[in-house]
Amino acid sequence: MTVTCVYVHVKPEHVQDFIDATTANHLESVKEKGNLRFDFVQQADDPCHFMVYEAYRSDEEAAAHKSTPHYLRWREAVADMMAEPRKGMKYNILQPSEI
After folding, report:
1. Secondary structure (DSSP) of 56-98
2. For residue range 5-19, what is the model confidence (pLDDT) as tens digits?
3. Alpha carbon distances (Å) from 43 to 9, 23, 38, 46, 63
4. Mind listing the domains of the chain with CATH numbers?
5. Contact residues for 72 (Cβ-Cβ < 8 A; gap 6+)
6. Which pLDDT tens digit goes with each residue over 42-94?
């Protein structure tokens, strides 16, 4: 299993547009082969900061996500909405161990 957390800082004037675009990406991403989770969250004390938690069964299935039409649409749509480049960080699952 592979997990990536993507941290995004959005310009204030684009918050709702970012939410709309990322929600559309989420709705398609959860249908992908190998997708276990695709959570989209907004920071409670700063509405301009978001995180996407992506969990896939394998590195290959996670990599395939980046070539899907919905991801490519999202990437293009949100590029100018960001206050700074997004940061994706990969993690290893320690618990629960049965995954």
Report:
1. ESSHHHHHHHTTSHHHHHHHHHHGGGBSS--EEEEE---SSTT
2. 999 999 999 999 999
3. 10, 16, 16, 5, 26
4. 2-91 (3.30.70.100)
5. none
6. 999 999 999 999 999 999 999 999 999 999 999 999 999 999 999 999 998 88
